[in-house]
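Hi U.,

Before I forget, here's the chain from the pilot set. I'm dumping it here mostly so it's searchable later in email.
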Amino acid sequence: MRISYLSCSERSPIFPFEPEYLEHLHREWSPEFCPAPISDTTNDQRPGLVLLDSDVQPQSWAHVLTCVNIQQSDLGTSHGTILFKGIITKGYLMMREQPWRRFVVLFSLAANRLRAHYMDRSGLIITRPILITANPTRLIDMLNTMSLGNSKVYGMDPTMHMCNESCKNMQCEVGDQAIGWIEDKQRRKLLIISILWRSQGLFSRGTICYRVRDKDGVEYALKDCWVDEAKKDHEEKVLEIVRGIPNVVTLIAAWDVEYEGESDSTLRIRNRHGKFSPGFRCKYHRRMLLTPCGEPLSTFSSKRELISAFRDFVVAHKAMIGRNVLHGDLSPNNLIIHEGRGFFIDFDHAQIIAQGSTSVRSNGTGTVPYMSIRLLYAITAIARDKGLGNMMVEQTASDDLESLFYIFIEFVTSFDGPKGSRTDPKKADRWGEVMEGMGAAAAPYKSGLVLVPRRDNELMNRTTTYFGGVRDLVQAWRYRLLDADADQTRDGVTHEEIEEILNAWLDHDAIDEPRPLEEVPPAHH
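Structure:
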């Protein structure tokens, strides 16, 4: 059974209605996910009542506008209750599947007490409870408002549009050529061709990268994210410093996303109510237009192309250090391939090296599976002695080069063909997946594979059959890290050492791709 609200004769002074759209777009409250959870590979949740576009067949959290979580027990003052955790999880799932939303609003009905739960990239706001047995019209007001409200009520961004089945019943200007549109700095509409990457966190930067196309058919990468006020222009400034370095993306434009004539931020709703939770950090909505628009590193077309891309990374990284910029957060998500060449992207955590120095002070930025052994040990020691809040470590170019090694290891031990092929996903877990939850154990785990005697072959023997011919490259790279660790007079491995190895292997017969079977000439007897 679905509850529909299909008519509204005039604009209400109370509710944010848009009557001109109601003949095309109406919404329905549905209890269909009460008995069975919404399909999701990571988390089964039964949301109670869900609000949906009636023209859309719901299949995932990507289709949920809001929901009402219904429970007999009271939420009360404890944030450890199942109800509270359930609401947070549902908000996370909605934002994960619809990362273009500015915020989400969900509702809980616990022990006849109605609450609204507002979530954005800075945190959570919960309203005071309304006892619906004493104020039944307030529940009806909520259901009506959410059903008939305009898209802004759900946190939809008016500067962009993502298509769904409801577009078929409207005059959507995108048509079949794209999945949506988004405005550039001059408020011109760019077609969204695809989603390149999106982050998974709820209270985070909410980064999402789109492949976009302008009216002339030129494609770009557009990065949309929520940035801490203190680092609002940081990435833009770094990209200006590294401008012109080959194999580093070029910034075309950067701007604040505006909402109702002002720079959009998570401060807006809190300013209106004058309420700020402890530790609140304002985040500004930012966009950047970049070129070239490449593909994920996992789309490499051959072993030679992959190794060449890593050589490009080493050369570009050396040039960036020459301009006193340390990337500091290398992972597969921060590297792309475009026309056979490797490019650096995403300089969120990049730092400027002070004149005369070779390192930066950081709070241990990076992704654990790809961080250097030295950094992991340092972070573990500081966390043990002083706590994570006081963490500051020295980070160098050598740490980034070691991160490149672990990214390479992930590829040659996981993929058994070009274009990210994994014909037998169970055969080998990806490097990042293995260490994701290791915590303090990650450093000794890596040490047991890398900083071991030269005769040890365990790491090179982990390569897939496809990459079997480059086992010796893995070992040669490991030797460089081992030698640098043993020599306390050095600042770690150098760009020249790694570049030399990769250059030598680019001319090696072992990385040649076998010809397809149909091209192999028959044997003559």
